[in-house]
Amino acid sequence: MQPAPTPSPPIRADGLQLDEHRDRQERYWRVQRAAWWGFGIIVLLAVLGLTGSGGVFQTRTIGFGTATVELPRVTRWEGSDELTVTFHDAADRHEIRIGQPFFDRFSIERIQPEPLENVLLPGAQSLVFPSAGDPPHTVRIDLRAGHFGWTAFDMTIGDQTRRISLIVLP
């Protein structure tokens, strides 16, 4: 017994002999256009620096009463970055207190200049730097993220404490 012949699709008005599902194809094109817009937005964010490593929005500055802290908005997992603290007042010593969640997420590769002392406090570490001469005095901390995700920690300079949030991208 022979199988029944497959019926031919009807001939369309434009002469093509296709059985096409146009509505499904149009939905696919809409999804494809939305994806291209999404890719374009991601590229724009990267060019502006909101994905780490370059761009006008790469770093942000947080003001304290006697100092300013410059740090990345977004950092990369296992990528090097820098946190810079500039003290604007004349003092014999400057202290930076950083909350423990910072040290849980980041490893410090280098501190320039080296702190005079590093004091362990409940839930934080205090770095004390001697200073001489006229301000400004600058401390640079090279760091590397060990884990990716959202990190929030407290930083205290002088008598002001600020909550700092960082995003670490994979």
Word description of this protein:
The protein is α+β, with helices and mostly antiparallel strands and 170 residues long. The protein has two domains: 23-57; 59-169, Immunoglobulin-like, CATH 2.60.40. The protein is built from two helices and eleven strands; from the N terminus they run αβββββαββββββ. The chain has helices at residues 22-48, 100-105, and strands at 59-63, 67-72, 74-76, 80-87, 93-99, 106-112, 117-121, 124-130, 137-145, 149-157, 160-169. The protein has a six-stranded mixed sheet with strand order 3-11-10-5-8-7. A hairpin with a 2-residue loop joins β10 (149-157) and β11 (160-169). The chain is rod-shaped, with a radius of gyration of 28 Å. The chain starts with 21 loop residues before the first helix and ends with a strand.
Compact description:
By secondary structure, the chain is α+β, with helices and mostly antiparallel strands. The chain is built from two helices and eleven strands.
Helix and strand arrangement:
Layout: H1 22-48, E1 59-63, E2 67-72, E3 74-76, E4 80-87, E5 93-99, H2 100-105, E6 106-112, E7 117-121, E8 124-130, E9 137-145, E10 149-157, E11 160-169
Descriptors:
single chain, 170 residues, alpha+beta, Immunoglobulin-like, 2 domains, 6-stranded mixed β-sheet, 5-stranded antiparallel β-sheet, rod-shaped
Chain-averaged pLDDT: 89
Largest sheet: 6 strands, mixed
- Give unreliable regions as ranges: none
The structure class reads alpha+beta
The beta-strand count equals 11
- Helicity range of the residues? 10-25%
SSE succession: HEEEEEHEEEEEE
CATH architecture of the largest domain, by name, is: Sandwich
| General shape | rod-shaped
Number of domains: 2
Beta-strand share of residues: 35-45%
- CA-to-CA gap between the ends? 62 Å
Q: Which radius of gyration do the C-alpha atoms yield? A: 28 Å
Tally the helices: what do you get? Answer: 2
Strand order of the largest sheet: 3-11-10-5-8-7
CATH class of the largest domain: Mainly Beta
Keywords: Membrane, Transmembrane, Transmembrane helix
